Amino acid sequence: MILDFFSFFTRPKASKEIAKERLKLVLIHDRANVSPQFLEMIKSEIMKVITNYIDIDESALDIQLTRTKSEDGESIVPALVANIPIKSIKQK
Amino acid sequence: MGEVIVITSGKGGVGKTTTVANVGTGLALRNKKVVLMDADIGLRNLDLVMGLENRVVFDLVDVVEGRCKLRNALVKDKRFEGLFLLPAAQTRDKTALKPEQMIKLCEELRKEYDYTLIDCPAGIEQGFHNAVVGADRAIVVTTPEVSAVRDADRVIGLLEAKELRNPRLLINRIRVEMVKRGEMMSIEDVKDILAVDLIGIVPDDEKIVVSTNRGEPIISDQKSLAGQAYRNIAQRIDGEDVPFLNLEDDEGFVFKLKKLLGIKTT
Ligand SMILES: Nc1ncnc2c1ncn2[C@@H]1O[C@H](COP(=O)(O)OP(=O)(O)OP(=O)(O)O)[C@@H](O)[C@H]1O
Ligand SMILES: [Mg+2]
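Output (structure tokens, whole complex):
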């Protein structure tokens, strides 16, 4: 709340904030040393498991390394985000 | 037993050579025996920055290939007692040096000199590996710009993989006015992102260009802030605890109020 009150007085996002955000994101990739091939591997493994239970749109499956707010909302942490469009759930 | 310290950065042009020249001179002014080693083979520059270009006879590659003794290749700086330059070879390329040769050379220097500062070439190829392979410690130079910080992060990772742990960070070319406007990352910002300890901060100072033109280290200019910054770094390397320069004295009302209320302001 107080923070919001103060940010009211500050200007729109300064370029250094943009620099920091972009750097943090790019460094997660750099440090993790994840290649597109590596992500492709994870993707095909995940697909194998999930298709046992769910019909998915394989062409639209998207998996990325990104950042998100931590549980306590205090910090930003790396996250593996998968977007898996479901066609239908397989019934046993 | 002396210490060998490599000054590296990843990105080119961020101030490695300037750092080596000034910090080395600062250590000599503290009565230490110091060698400034130019490991930027093929792009010799440290001699010029130090104003010693007319006194170079032999170079680093001559030494490791046995064409001369180490002490014959060292150029003694007559202005500063105990300061020597080991020039890079200018007409050879980076493959002229092998890691084993560098390790041996560093061993020899360690016996005789309190500090050897190695001016590392830009990049992360063979020249980088040669420059760091014989070192005991590393200082990573960056500027508060995204590309320099990214490259610094990469180099820190590589140094750690090479068992050169706990490299220290030098943030160069800080422009206080821009930091105040929020248009340049602050010391804290860069430090937080790279997560390594600081060895020093150096303001952007046009006097550095002037002193480089003359071939005189700015550290001997008692009035310049950048000179003070380099003196402080030399002291810290030499084991003294010196507070960091306060470049951002006037913090502004909102910042002070936030600090008063204990709100994190990064
Ligand atoms: N704090 C500073 N303020 C102003 N100019 C600076 C500062 N530090 C370095 N410079 C200037 O920036 C330029 C590059 O510096 P320097 O040659 O030390 O970088 P470098 O990292 O050794 O470059 P390279 O990677 O090409 O070897 C020089 O012209 C130098 O005078
Ligand atoms: Mg240089």
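Strands of chain A lie at 54-56, 62-69, 76-83, 86-89.
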